Task: structure prediction
Amino acid sequence: MRLENRKVNSYFALLGNIGIVMILFSVCRVLFYLFNLHLYSAVTFQEMLRMMWGGLRFDFSAVMMVNSVYIVFFFLTFQFKFNSIAQKIFKYWFVITNSIALMANCIDMAYFPFTLKRTNISVFGEFKGEGSLASLVFDMLIDYWYIVLIWGVFVFILSIGYLKMKPVNKIIGWKSYLKYYALTLVGFVVAATIVVVGIRGDYRKYSRPITLSNAGDYVNRALDIAIVQNTPFCIIKTIGKTAPEKLYYFDSLENLESVYNPAHYPESKGEFIPKNVVIIIWESFSREFVGALNKHVDNGNYEGYTPFIDSLLQYGATFEFSYANGRKSIDALPSITASIPFVNDPYILSPYSGNFLDGIGSLLKRKGYNTSFFHGAHRGSMGFWAFMNLTGFDHSYAEEDYLAAHAAEKGGWGIWDEEFLQYTAEEINKIEEPFCSIIFTLSSHHPYVLPKKYDGVFKDGPTPLHRCIGYTDYSLRRFFETISKEPWFENTLFVITADHANHVVFPENQNSIGQMSVPIIFFDPNHTLEGIYPHVAQQTDIMPTILDLLNFDEPFVAFGQNAFDTTIQHFATNRLSDTYHVYYQQYCLMSNIELNDIRLFDVKQDPMLWKRLENERPEMTKMLLDHLKGFLQQYNNRMIDNCLTPACDRRIAK
Result:
């Protein structure tokens, strides 16, 4: 009997056919590695096993997406699926769709060295209108004939290995029909659940669906991400995402860099200062919550919701105008820890999430730092750990780690801030100096609940979030009380900021500027940084500012600047919907460049944004518009060219 004529129980046929595709996807991964061995000579056997294991998660997601129609019709056609015509339709659909998916994997075995990333949907845009595309494809088929041969073998295996379904015994009587259809419907529910979970890549409620950047969970180097991923997954996940195009507002590199240049080449200011660094990212923390930053409100009687932060600001440094670079938590981590702002899509979810980049973790590791990331949600939450791993943070502490050491009640979607910050203090005490630790709070996240013992303790506000802000402020007070007794405390630079603003209620903040205003606070226990600096700061300034304060002397790429440098102009940039904002001093330029929509406001004199100034202040308008164009040209071109490190700094030229 020929293999292709074998008939088995329909459920075994389904599992067997899906299993064949999963095996072939893993074979593709091994071949991808072998064909690009010259790029992966540093990969150890243990690392390869880890990547193969992680790759199964991506393969299963891709296989479920490719075969979702096949699986749905498998159940919904009931007995018709055993018909000879239906069996042929099933087979041809299965073989053709999976052959296309495997072809995509095979193409990247040869194409990857040219791009150093898996192919995604943007490749079709890159070749759109390319008159020589057909000849290019033909040339590649000739040059890489052995890849075509490998693909042909895969198609052959799919075809001859395909398992046909054995018809059920003849159904007689309504009870038999009822039993058959009931079992089929149960099977459909189970299969549908598996398909959905497989496509999402996770079954947990607060997990985001698996995306390109989740491959960072299984690698130590950005280049290795491509081993974990597969090409069908990357193509499907980027469908519908508008890939940025290269911009040429400035026709020469010199003109561009004179307006905006994210490449930093620090001048030596003396010996490197190995201070510890602790960055606290406060969930949903608007600037208006801080009484000390809103003394103009209510004739100076406004107290806010953060008495501890108010007390800390007496000895810390902040800025008259400070802004987030995005509106979501997933925007904040790249902005704060790697100086990569939100522009078109969240960097973590973008097709460029596998680009080579340096974060504050990887840069400080060059100086001997130990790096760690603390977040009280589960380890896979929001794809945070995958990104932190890629930017040089070697150790993560999450809900699972806390629960392994402490019995606890979860707060909403993670460990309460008070308990987790005390746990953080315990763990930081075990880390050898110098260290860089990122702490992300979560109790001020929806659903805005507090431990029952604190009912009625914290100040009420217009929304439930305000009580949670008071609770996290108290939790931070306890955290600082604990760590202030430790010997490393005096040798530590602290930064406190927010991931994004939320629930602003002041009338003057009910606009796109108020919705982006967050605190950015630097605190040195030795009181070397104090006062309110009268200029603009943004989240992307945090990394370059810290590096400058430590006398870091190696080049790096950052879309921010040293916020304490008084010799330069200070700008901030963010985007809401289709409108970009550029902030300078008390001014804000709002622009949709494509529509030539340009508006200028004086935020300080006109917080309600009633009076447009672009015609009255043409020089200011032009300067801010040029800054925006330079920023966008640098950002888009560097993302497309994979140029987020100094090694490729000149590649952004036209």
Notes: Residues 274-565 form a domain with the Alkaline Phosphatase, subunit A fold (CATH 3.40.720.10). The radius of gyration is 28 Å.
